[in-house]
Amino acid sequence: MFKGIYNGTERHQADLSTILSRSESAGVVKTMVTAGTLAQSQEALQLSESEPSLFCTVGVHPTRALEMKDNPGAHIEHLLAVVEEGKNKVVAIGECGLDYDRTKFCSRQDQIPGFIAQFSLAERTGLPMFLHDRNTEGDFFRIIKDNRSRFTTGVVHSFTGTIQEMKAYVALDLYIGINGCSLKTEANIQVVKDTPLDRIMLETDCPYCEIRPTHAGSSWVKSKWPSKDKKKYSPEALVKGRSEPCQIRQVCEVVAAAKGIADEDVARAAFNNTMKVFFSKEAKNMGSSPFDLSVNAIPHGH
User: Fold this and answer.
1) SS3 for 107?
2) How far apart are CA 200 and CA 274, in angstroms?
3) Which of 56, 127, 203, 259 could make an SS bond with 301 (beta carbons 3.0 to 4.6 A apart)?
4) 244 is annotated as contributing to ligand binding
5) Separation of alpha carbons 145 and 136, rounded Å
6) Integer distance in angstroms from the first to the last C-alpha of the chain?
7) Rounded to whole angstroms, how far apart are CA atoms 244 and 226?
8) CA angle 98, 255, 194 (to 5 degrees)
9) Is residue 134 part of a domain?
10) Where does a divalent metal cation 2 bind (predicted)?
11) What is the CATH number of the domain that holds 167?
């Protein structure tokens, strides 16, 4: 969508540079481009190498796990080659996990071995994991728990689970990724409220998962941008229905309101958590410095 193409039809010129400029103005300092296939991993690395602020993941999404079925061992080696090629840009293994809401793309039986195979990638590279869990009836948790010694840590992104599930992941020393999809219902808001601040990460998952007016937390959004339909594209406006990295500020605002604390406190915590997990070497050299939301923001999942 950031190439101006929607469902195979070009609606406007590619505008990634405009989007990155807008996110920088909003305070975003690092952006993670998440991949879901081997080809996407290669493309994400190439894109990340074009901009200093971009970093990427390498892995296979559960809905695309069929690409690993015939020869998972060889597929892992191909993914490993991408990691080794982009050592300074690849910051996580993923997006991987299980998704039982979209088994029309890949069955449970094919998703599970594809997920398990990727722990070897995390084990061999020492990278954290960018994880996906959708209504998996305990299977995702059991697999994570059984393989927990094989990876350093990670984030369960776009979290929409229960308070009990959140606590179980936190007990495994994992982090909880919050985006617009995590803020739809009052039950979602309660989970966010109960999630420890030192375990929260913020993300947009753009171009998806925007905070919509129907979402339970939408009334707490303060940062807003003009928007236009893609057929009436203007670089000064967001495209309606397409979220952007800059909107991570909105996620921060809703989380802060749900917890009854300052936006800056959420931004600082999420920033520090993200740096600790995905940019640990840089985080060790940062020390403690004043945090100003006007010039700093949160590295986020794309």
Assistant:
1) coil
2) 9
3) 203
4) no
5) 14
6) 12
7) 12
8) 70
9) yes
10) 132, 157
11) 3.20.20.140
Rounded to 5 degrees, what angle do the CA atoms 178, 181, 184 make?
110
Residue 209 lies in a domain: yes
- Domain of residue 121 covers 5-284
**202 close to 252: Cβ distance less than 8 angstroms:** yes
| 132 belongs to an annotated ligand binding site | yes
162-213 pLDDT, tens digit each: 999 999 999 999 999 999 999 999 999 999 999 999 999 999 999 989 999 9
Do the bridges between strand 227-228 and strand 129-134 make them parallel or antiparallel, or are there none, so unpaired?
A: unpaired
Contact 248, 204 (CB under 8 A): yes
Q: Is residue 263 part of a domain?
A: yes
Q: With a threshold of 0.90, does the pTM exceed it?
A: yes
If pLDDT is split at 50, 70 and 90, which confidence band does 142 have?
very high
Half-sphere exposure of 153 (CA within 13 A, CB side): 18
Q: How many independent structural domains does the chain possess?
A: 1
95 labelled binding-site residue: yes
Give phi and psi for 289, each to the nearest 5: -135, 155
- Record the tokens describing residue 118, joined without a space: 């990727």
Instruction: Give 21-41 pLDDT, tens digit per residue.
Output: 999 999 999 999 999 999 999
Is the residue at 110 inside a domain? yes
